[in-house]
Amino acid sequence: MRAVAAVLAAVLAVGAALPRPGLLPHGPARGDARLRPGDDESSPAVPLRRALRLYGRTARRLYVGTNGVISTQDFPRETQYVDDDFPTDFPVIAPFLADLDTSGDRGNIYYRQDDSLDLLDQAVGYIQAGFPRTAGSFVPTNAFVATWENVGAYQELSQDTEPSTKLNTFQTVIAYSDEDTYTIFLYPDGGLQFLGTRPKESYNVQLELPARVGFSWGDGDDPKRDGLFHSLASSEQALRNLERESNTGIPGVWVFRVGSVDHVEPGGSEGLGPGVPHSLPVHPDPDYTRTLYSHADHASTELPAQHPSHGSRTPVLLGFVPERRDAQERSRRLYPDGDGDTRQSYSANPSSYSSGHHGVGVEEDVHFNPDVFTYSASSRETCAQHHGRCSPHAFCTDYATGFCCHCRATFYGNGRQCLPEGAVHRLNGKVSGSLTVGRASVRFQDVDLHAYIVGSDGRAYTAISGVPQPAARALLPLLPVGGLFAWLFALEEPGSENGFSVTGAEFTQSLEVTFYPGGETVQVTQTAEGLGPDNYLSLKTHIQGEVPFLPENVTVHVTPYKELYYYSSSAVTSSGQREYVVAAGTANQTLSYRLRQNITFSGCSHSRLPARQQLSVARAFALYDGQEHVLRYALAARVGSAQDGAGNPAVNPCHDGTHGCEAPAHCQPGAGMEYTCECPAGYRRDGRGCRDVDECAEGLSRCGPFTVCLNVPGSHRCECRGGYRPAGDGQACVPLAPASDPCEDGRHPCAPGGRARCLSRGDGRPSCECLPGYTGDGIHCSDVDECAENPCHPAATCYNTPGSFTCRCQPGYEGDGFRCTYAAGGNPQRLTPCQHEQMYPREVPPGRYRPLQCHGSTGHCWCVDAAGQEIAGTRTAPGTTPPRCGGPEPTERPPSMCERWRQSLLEHYGGSPRGDQYVPQCDPQGHFTPLQCHGDSGYCWCVDESGREIQGTRSEPGTAPPCLPSVAPPTVRPSPRPDVSPPTTGTFLLYAQGQQIGYLPLNGTRLQKEAAKTLLSLHGSIVVGIDYDCREKMIYWTDVAGRTISRVSLEPGAEPETIINSGLISPEGLAVDHLRRAMFWTDSGLDRIERARLDGSERRVLFDTELVNPRAIAVDPVRGNLYWTDWNREAPKIETSTVNGANRRVLVHTDIGLPNGLTFDPFSKLLCWADAGTKHLECTFPDGTGRRVIQNNLNYPFSIISYANHFYHTDWRRDGVIAVNKDTGSFTDEYLPEQRSHLYGITAVYPYCPGARK
């Protein structure tokens, strides 16, 4: 203790963190062994002189690893744990788990056993500073000391890089006796110079995973304990606090009790023990509970942690989650429901939302009408619609008549609310009453009720303050008020369930007690209203009736008892006779009362509840403190199977399901065995059943003017007529106000219509673009002289026209101006190979022609035969896919209707149509493609086999109708590559995983994990950014290993094509603009944002200034806006500009850390991002307003995409794809590929073109 006092005095003197002398003595002079230098080394097994207890198990040897860990078993390869989140597959004590490296004399790692008195004295001083009451008698017999001194992070070195000078020093001490074990983490001042390490698989993608600090149970013999862990820090902010904060009062010193089988107990948490608290505070000191590092059994609760005041008697709640955002941590064992922002958390090995629990698919609703509003719905509910009602710690299961929620392993509850097994819980409530006590009437309103539950052994303490005398004394025998909580949280015997496992946190208890011999009767109603912040259960209690008078200075004793509970799908009943002894001095009187109680709840009809169970109350007491005016009950109970021969009283038919009510009628219990059948709103009685009320036909609807009433079972809905929209009151409809469009009303600065076009951005501001054939900024456009580029045949003359040009063959030649042949005697002259070589520079020597020929200036392409002559019907227009040449010469066929019409319009447009002029799209067989679009205006429609528009299919810009092929596809297709599996139709996700692109189909929004597969293998590549061109059905990706950008068609047999292979260093984010036929990408090596055509041409730099680490990029094609993230650690930001690079500005620059993923949702028109620093998923409007957090407990996201009502992101801790519901923010599913490696980019592939793309 003297050593600790000296250290503490030094700390207080300078007001800083733990000085280096504060570390326990270590090094060769103390006999330490030294771990051999390296990147992934492990010490030999260290046999302990005396066995220690760790996590309830006996450990006889320890291992020390390079990567900041100690274990009771040898380590696996670091790739199996160093980048992953807790829990680990093996037991771990982790003072700083990261990819560390001591190669090249970069630090030392020392370890030893020690039983010297000076070291044990210093260790016990730290322990007693963290546990001043409970560790006062702790005398350690042995210690194990491991010290990481000036160790570095793993770093890939090259000739151009120098080793980092940032080094870390920290120490772990395990002090133990035969009875208990404590662990001390010590972080000296300046000891943590780096907070994370780069994954080895990240290549030149700049990423850093924060270290993890805490404890993990690992796999063991008890499956209920597998995967438990306790996390102290895993975010940068929490890691920074390790030196400055403490749970002992000494900065940089952290103490934990680790011998227990159930949980890790941190220092500074005393007051949470199993004993009865001295008092139950109504309002704990908010500053204390916010700053004291608190812990939940098997919890993950992060820093910040402050210096606790050990004199305080205010207990800190187990399971308390600090308000700091960076203190959100995932835990399989416990993650409290928390505040309103905490919607969902992962389990360590989650039972996925869809996998193995239900087989009901969710299909996309293509008939959604945004102008419909509904008062109620009567239809079968499914997990896909309502899984947000489940607890974050539950999974959802679909059944034939509905869905149910079930708590995951290590949690208990009814699925809608789940609590961690064995943890301490709080209940808060208000009590009101109107009682007749003897001859006196007593009323009280909203007095406080608090209950304290120790779930590990089934003890419940209840305190009601403020009940006036004499009612408070008279309520002493009314133990069932506190007995409700004993039943709710009773210790469960094998195969049994306590009350909370059945009812959850929403139920109503109706209790009737009749006292004997006086016959006084009192009714108690207790209504639970759900879990509040920090998992507090909230309830209201009302007491009314008569109770016997009890004089002052009497005590009431209740003998232990057993009580039978009977269960149905929505009710629990019990009844019994209780005796109690009223003692006054030496005089005792035994009295009794009879009770009957019903507990009703909304249960799952598919849960298998026991018919009956027995509650055994081993200890019970009641007392009234006259000075504090507090009425207290305390019970210790366990629930188990009912003993044979136990009575079975009659149960009301409503409770056991034997009633005759027919759905949708509800059974309402009456007195005794009586009941009535009651109909819900929207129905009328019809015998024992109900029939629907047609509110529309009977004039009972609330539909207002300009609406159409539609009857639905149990209700009705109102739809607006065409040209109207719902009014603000949700009942009437008002005419649609025409949106002000400056492009339509002429209020725009664009050049005249013949030179430029105006594009509406949706925000009232126009965007101007010059038409093809003109150049400028859209406001000023000048004609391009195409003839200067010699686009015509050498035997033709070029004539420049405004916005275009024409080519005419010279006299004596025939052709379209792009191809002219000499007409000698009326017969066109065939060119010799020499002449052809002069005109078309695509000859392959010696004397052979490439099958595909293209005109370098005009972009026209065609196939030629062996003599170099064009093959009829193969010519394609500029900007379209070139024909496939080189196979067997196509048999001559006459041009189809589509081809003739296309050729006619091309001639009419002078061979170069503008972007807003319609040209029919034909497939290679000459048929009309099912989807036709008007240039690049965005207007599209479906056609039949004759090219006629199908009525009702024309769409607005940004959305394309789903069109069915009018002609059966050919049955013979090219053979696919052996490493490519072509996808099926429908919406699916594509994700980048190292050297491959994976395919993950969706059923509605649910991940079809069983159908996932590798779509494309790219050996030697590292794919990072990925996107999809919905028009040409092409995948585009960036490759940081090959420093290229490539693409491939989704057609079977397609080969990848590299389109950009120079001028790149670290191409990461990629976005495709399907309307402008352009792509955009970020390069974090060059700190650039660039743009090019989809074939790689017309490449140009948009921005190369004020960028540090540009990563994600997204485009809104309809509005022509570009967005990107820059995770510059000094000043991270999200920026925007137009797709042409104009109007650059910062959208978001506050409260962001590492914005890795970015997506533009084309349906909600929201810009959303996933931040690996703040762990938030957030959205904002394109102008930066309306920012809101969707989910605040992400792990380590990399890329994100939006589809329907879900986000899907890749995660580097889970190495998988995670699904997040947009509306609730809850995690709904995850897919973990069998091959474990980091996932990078992700995109969604639609069967049509949406309004905008990621």
TrEMBL record:
Domain NIDO: residue ranges: 95-261
MF terms (GO), sorted A to Z = calcium ion binding; Wnt receptor activity; Wnt-protein binding
What are the cysteine partners in each disulfide bond?
Answer: 854-861, 933-940
Task: Tell me which residues make up the EGF-like domain.
Answer: 650-691, 692-734, 739-782, 783-821
One short Pfam name that applies is EGF_3
Which CDD domains does the entry mention? EGF_CA, nidG2, TY
A single Gene Ontology biological process assigned to it is: cell-matrix adhesion
Q: Which residues constitute the signal peptide according to the record?
A: 1-17
Family matches, as SMART domains:
EGF (SM00181), EGF_CA (SM00179), G2F (SM00682), LY (SM00135), NIDO (SM00539), TY (SM00211)
Residue segments, region Disordered: 23-44, 265-361, 873-893, 952-981
**SUPFAM superfamilies from the entry?**
EGF/Laminin, GFP-like, Growth factor receptor domain, Thyroglobulin type-1 domain, YWTD domain
Record-level GO cellular component terms = basement membrane; plasma membrane
Q: Which residues form a coiled coil?
A: none
Which domain of life does the protein's organism represent?
A: Eukaryota
Q: Where are the transmembrane segments?
A: none
Domain Thyroglobulin type-1: from-to ranges: 831-885, 895-963
Claim: ATP-binding is one of the keywords in the record: no
Give its localization.
Secreted, Extracellular space, Extracellular matrix, Basement membrane
Composition skew (Basic and acidic residues), residue ranges: 29-39, 322-342
What's the protein name? Nidogen-2
Tell me what organism the protein belongs to: Lepidothrix coronata
